Amino acid sequence: MNTNTPDTAVEELDVLVVGAGFAGLHQLDRLRKLGFSVKIFEAGAGLGGIWYWNCYPGARVDSEGAIYQYAREDLWRDFDYTELYPGWQELRRYFEHVDGKLDLSRDIRFDTRVESAVFDADANTWTVRATDGHTVTARYVVLCTGFGSKPYIPPIDGLDRFDGPCHHTGLWPQEGLDFTGKRVAVIGTGASGVQVAQEAAKDAASLTIFQRTPIQALPMRQKQLDAAAHSDLKKGMSDRFARRIDSFSGFDFDFLPKSALEVSEEERRETYEKLWEEGGFRFWLGTFNDVLFDQAANDTAYAFWRDKTRARIADPVLAEKLAPEVAAHPLGVKRPSLEQNFYDIFNQDNVHLVDLRETPIESVTETGIRTSDTEQEFDIIVLATGFDASTGGITAIDLEGTDGQTLREKWSEGVRAHLGVATAGFPNLLFVYGPHSPSGFCNGPTCAEIQGDLIVETLEHMREAGLQRIEATAEAENAWRDHVTELVGPTLFDKANSWYVGANIPGKPRQMLLYPGGLPQYLDNWRRSASESYSGFVLS
Ligand code: NA7
């Protein structure tokens, strides 16, 4: 229920933050303590960003919980996740814990979706309007909309005709939905599809998974954590957090300093076995340093993954569809997922796979899904079809800058954002975890804090220097885009149609949306700019 009361006077703020996930809450806490007047507008009714919206059965973070939290001892010292990889309920419990400690909610307006923001070039302020008409003016707008806040629902004929529940994973009903005894269809096999399928396979009468591209899911090695495990974890926390800043992806592990091709076959095999047993993203982001660059190196990793995976699937036809002999794309250049028993569920009688490359969906009917060869009845349809990632949450807002153009229009030909934080023509608008920043490759809370701190420092600098306006230059954002393009050139990322390159959304310009140089290199660039009086930005 929306309990917000309409305000008559327009509130004036130093900073309006959009989004109450990891990034937005960090901004609120830090800026407030520095004496800025700051509020968050949050579209959901609760805290957590993606963990508010993605409450589908099985939703779970693919980072270890120990490092999927703020690195602040006052927050981690007396909080424990009960699983190594916590689920959405625990993440919500974490956000409540943070709120209890930092008293954040009092400055958050929930149920408030930002619809538009217009820059006033005379006053150097933004006028921000929510869908309920509530309006504020703010000197700065910091968008913390996350990489996955705009769900993508494909234009499947008849989708709105279906009589039963049909939900996107990222818009899951807060009251939940029980799969027990139901005939469930899951469309999509990204991280969300894998997680929801594992859960539905337990209780559904039947589960039919509609796969277009096979995911390359890696073993999660989930563990329940008891008091002894918590105590052990606590001992290592400070070190683990300290290591994040030096790693490519903001984790406490990094690529090995050697090539997959320079070692003997035996050493390669032993290394892969070790990473596989350790679980998580180590087989992806803690592996040989050329796996994401060199096709021959990648082939060795893919062959290992394929053989391990196929060994778990009894039916050889299914094994070929789920883990094909010849890779659909190089391993790891499309986001892998962590799985617990995803490949094993296909040995159950109640689980079926539809290969959409052989039999595409033609339409959804009142009672089910029609593919090119048959029609099947379902009680529930789950759309695990992903997001207009990285940019979608930003371009969903009508942002009007200094030349009358919206940001949506500007980026319709491709993203330009200097250091991934600001774009020319839109002064005083900053992005945390935005496109062309390490977001997407980076452990979320790491980026929220580390990139977030740089933004806080910038605003502090502006205030101390008596400045009112910061804007990226067109030259700098073009150069940054070229830098991103240059970095991605020698990699294998362009060999998959992934959301990393915008290829999952029809019509979206194909370009690398993330910063592929890793967190340390990104931070070096920031520091250089800051030490050169914020080169690449005009401050006035
Ligand atoms: P993803 O990873 O983008 O996965 C979406 C899935 O939906 C993927 O398997 C797609 O197949 C499939 N898809 C998309 N459109 C269609 C249509 N029209 N028909 C059939 N199948 C379709 O989204 P997730 O929500 O799983 O994960 C997003 C991120 O959240 C993830 O990367 C993590 O960072 C957390 P495709 O592969 O495009 O052939």
Automatic annotation (TrEMBL):
Protein family membership: Belongs to the FAD-binding monooxygenase family.
Known cofactor(s): FAD
Name assigned to this protein: NAD(P)/FAD-dependent oxidoreductase
Keyword NAD: no
FAD/NAD(P)-binding domain residues: 14-235
UniProt cross-references to PANTHER family, sorted A to Z: L-ORNITHINE N(5)-MONOOXYGENASE-RELATED
UniProt cross-references to Gene3D superfamilies, sorted A to Z: FAD/NAD(P)-binding domain
Keywords: FAD, Flavoprotein, Monooxygenase, NADP, Oxidoreductase
Lineage, opening ranks: Bacteria, Bacillati, Actinomycetota, Actinomycetes, Mycobacteriales
